[in-house]
Specification:
- It is elongated and about 45 Å long.
- It has one domain: Yope Regulator, Chain: A, CATH 3.30.1460.70.
- It is of the alpha+beta class.
- The mean pLDDT is 94.
- It has a four-stranded antiparallel sheet.
């Protein structure tokens, strides 16, 4: 889903993970996502430790330029690609694979 923050002149796009993480696996999945986020240039994973929801966020500041279709396309494409790329690792950690092993497999 997309969010426009007009007062901050920002555009944000979120991709929600299709699975929720059970409470018993949130710490391990949090570690996996932290390992995944390290060094990422565009966007990041977020984990809600209260309900187990995972999402990927991309955003841009549009203060000095207009928001055009190419910018939106890049944010959305990058976002969905990252969720697709890391989803197998999320599922693996949820199934008991260590975060370090899962991230090396991604």
């Amino acid at each position: 889903y997309a969010q426009a923050l007009e007062s901050q002149q920002q555009f944000i796009f979120y991709c929600l993970c299709p699975i929720k993480i059970p409470k018993s696996k949130r710490r391990a999945v949090g570690e996996f996502l932290s390992r995944a986020n390290y060094g990422m240039i565009i966007g990041n994973f977020e984990l809600n430790f209260d309900d187990g929801e995972i999402r990927y966020k991309t955003s841009t500041n549009v203060k000095n330029h207009s928001l055009d279709s190419d910018t939106i396309k890049q944010l959305v494409y990058t976002n969905v690609k990252m969720m697709d790329e890391y989803l197998p690792g999320i599922i693996a950690v949820k199934s008991g694979v260590s975060p370090a092993d899962a991230i090396s497999d991604v």
